[in-house]
Amino acid sequence: MARFELKLPKMGESVAEATITNWLKEVGDKIEADEAVLEIATDKVDSEVPSEVSGTLVEKLFGKDDLVQVGQTIAIIETEAGVEISSSFLVDKVIEDEPAPAEAAEIEKTIEAVQETAAAPQDFSTSDKFFSPLVKNIAKEEGVSIEELENIQGSGKDGRVTKEDILKHIEDRKSGVVITPKAVEETVVETIVSKTEQPKAEQPKISEPKAVQPAVQKSQQTVPVSVNGGDEIIEMDRMRKLISGYMVASVQTSAHVQSFIEVDVTNIVKWRDKVKTAFEKREGEKLTFTPIMMEAVAKALKDFPGMNISVDGEYIIKKKNINLGMAAALPNGNLIVPVIKNADQLNLVGMAKAVNDLGNRAKAGKLKPDDTQGGTYTVTNVGTFGSVFGTPIINQPQVGILALGAIRKVPAVIETPEGDFIGIRQKMFLSHSYDHRVVDGALGGSFVKRVAEYLEAFDVERDF
Fold it and tell me: What is the pLDDT of residues 218-257, one digit of tens each?
């Protein structure tokens, strides 16, 4: 018999962790190769983890709702043959070489305690403090725990931890100011190896890490809600909890400001009505208004790169690529934001295919983790639900989001060489929410005006 470690697989270059939502197999169950063992979820995308081997599930290392890092062992599967790959191999080896039962038990206990500490997943959502994506990524790569991160004295605005702060903390930690679980584990392993090779040698002592002051928790006052006998209490599902956290964090992070502009899209409506049948017949795709709008947004972002940025503490990151997020509906009614990568490089046909593909896979619940990563600007179509305009919340760490209102027939003044007259036009509102920390009204207003100009100047003679 051999033991195989089932690890959380890599799900995309920008995905570092996932939450276990359901175990499909229990300890003692038989598992076939490529059979799903458990279900996991990243920020918004759910998927299954299959087994690479056939065997019996003998140990589950994490429970439901636990956060697991990519590459961590999540279960042990016992197979009929093969090489044993087990985290307990080192302990087994030491016990085999060291005949003293009491001492072997003590070593095994020490290693288990260290491994438990070192493998503890980092869950930054439990903190009341805001940490930029860059700081969190550095923390994950360097093994900085949430407790350590919360106690770093930030030099940024409102005491926020900057890139320089965490790098300095890591340097101090390497010099011995703070001892991490990883360092403790390495010391224990070196001690065990040394003891195995030289049984008489004195075992070195592991110094305790210096005590740190507990983080100051922000007091959160909630308004009491009265419940009577006829009310129904429903717990938020995982998705709604995530959305709730993201929305509150975004409002607390960015200074939201809105600009609105009305656009005459009569020419676009007439052109689409004229070509949509031929477009579907030739391309095998339906032509909606969304790719036309996204094309205009991508052009405007090229004209105003100051909208295609992110904020990291006191630093502005100008994004090289234009990756457009588009709000799409999930099977449960919630919204998700898949991303069209390098949107400015797509023609209308390519944009339509990308929009339809992401929208269809979102409805079917088949989006991959990478499909929702890397967005630099977001567009949401509130007009789908009949809204004339809206004030959307920014999708962090972006600095802007554009809401597309419903297209309506309205009376309008039409200017002609012979004079002005009243006519029926197809119009819509564009609602632009932007982060006033880094985007002033001139830039935010000019950007949405440029989008409107591209839409109103749409070439009705163009081919698709």
Answer: 445 667 788 887 898 998 887 788 889 989 999 999 999 9
- The CA distances from residue 137 to 118, 153, 166, in Å, are 17, 18, 11
Q: Three-state secondary structure along the chain? A: CEEEEEECCCCCCCCCEEEEEEECCCCCCEECCCCEEEEEECCCCEEEEECCCCEEEEEECCCCCCEEECCCEEEEEEECCCCCCCCCHHHHHHHHHCCCHHHHHHHHHHHHHHHHHHCCCCCHHHCCCCCCHHHHHHHHHHCCCHHHHHCCCCCCHHHCCCHHHHHHHHHHHHCCCCCCHHHHHHHHHHHHHHHHHCCCCCCCCCCCCCCCCCCCCCCCCCCCCCCCCCCCCCCCCHHHHHHHHHHHHHHHHCCEEEEEEEEECHHHHHHHHHHHHHHHHHHCCCCCCHHHHHHHHHHHHHHCHHHCEEEECCEEEECCCCCEEECEECCCCCEECCEECCHHHCCHHHHHHHHHHHHHHHHCCCCCHHHHCCCCEEEECHHHHCCCCCCCCCCCCCCEEEEECCCEEEEEEEEECCEEEEEEEEEEEEEEEEECCCCCHHHHHHHHHHHHHHHHCCCCCCCC
Q: Is 169 a catalytic residue?
A: no
Which position has the token pair 């005590």? Answer: 211
Nearest 5°: the CA angle 434, 246, 442 is 5
Closest CA to 270 of 409, 451, 175, 164: 409
pLDDT band with cut points at 50, 70 and 90 for residue 154: confident
Please state, in angstroms and as integers, the Cα–Cα distance from residue 434 to each residue in 260, 262, 311, 413, following that order. 11, 18, 12, 30
Check: CB of residue 60 under 8 Å from CB of residue 73: no
Looking at this protein, which amino acid is placed at residue 326? M
Nearest by Cα to 124 from 146, 108, 105: 146
| Predicted confidence (pLDDT) per residue in 73-91, tens digit | 999 999 875 444 443 333 3
Largest CA distance in the chain: 106
pLDDT for 414-441, tens place per residue?
998 999 999 999 999 999 999 999 999 9
Separation of alpha carbons 73 and 82, rounded Å: 18
| 43, 66, 303, 436: the active-site residue | 436
What's the CA angle centered on 385, arms 381 and 387, to 5 degrees? 80
> In Å, how far are 129, 147, 237, 238 from 242, measured between CA atoms?
16, 22, 9, 6
Single out the catalytic residue among 169, 440, 459, 463.
440
pTM for this structure? 0.62
Question: Does 436 qualify as catalytic in the annotation?
Answer: yes
